[in-house]
Amino acid sequence: MEESHNEDNIIGSPIQEFFRGKTVFLTGGTGFMGKILIEKILRSCPHVTRIYMLVRQKKNKEFKQRMQEYVEDEVFHKLNAKQRLKVSGIPGDVAQPGLGISEEHRKLLEDSVNIVFHAAATVRFDEPLPTAVNINVAGTKEIFDLARNMRHLKALVHVSTAFSNCQLDEIREEIYDPPTTHQKLIQLTQSIEGKFLNEITPIILEKRPNTYVYTKAVAEEVVRTQSKGLPVSIFRPAIGKNILKVILAQILIMQSIEDANQNENEPAEEVVHEEPTVYNYVSSTQRPITWKEFSKLALTHGEECPPSQGIWCFCLTLNKYFLIHYLYVIFMHFLPAIKMDGIAMIFGKKAQ
Prior knowledge:
This protein is α/β, with parallel strands linked by helices.
């Protein structure tokens, strides 16, 4: 007991001290990036009070069971039972009005949360525009509506993407003018019939290649217009090629909290609303990697750490010809999948 008391009195790093006694609310916690972030906070900041994460309910699984399976994930294997108990699920859905959170849970978050990480997003490039808008744009607006009522908020970090303004030759750490406002985009997707909207989506996207980067750009406009009076920063990661870069990204997210929190020590009358601080995290210019190097790394680590549910030998083949790629898809994916599904159905199993 004495030893535990002494450990509590040890002064840690600035980040550890920032998280001491704090309560965190996280969206996107069930995704790979969210899991890494939660594990990093629990392991490196032992005095964090609690982490609430928004979790969608599933029809075929009880919420309590899903959360139990979540904290037993392999990514948390270094954490003890006490650390894992600090993770609590909040039933909800970022695509729903009010985040789908009950009044009881909303009050809980408003009264206790100090730090918010908004990392939830649909990252599918071919996502229909209405779905992408609901999750990436309207969901971000709902987060700010909730955060504005959080009485003890110290920092809000919005996770964007380095490709939100990919139509530009150079992307600086600033918020660019959006292709449209979030109000107009939400109204557009709600007022136009789905089939016709799908047909005109390429026209709406203009120079942006897909609905993902388009809606993430508009989401940054939400952050800029809704952040008045709030300690907010934007984090723009690129595509993580390996686990090390993802972990480093989480460290940078935590460092950005200190910047988002800098106005706390300023007198209220001196606080002037400025645009949120933006952090680009793109390592390719400092440590570039070729596709050949990437394929070697993927093959090496793929064999060392194969997917737990994989049923096919790990391999990676790169080519620039569509016909060859199509043949690979047919003979290496489609036909084997039909065979395996057929065998599964013979034995009364569900086809994948």
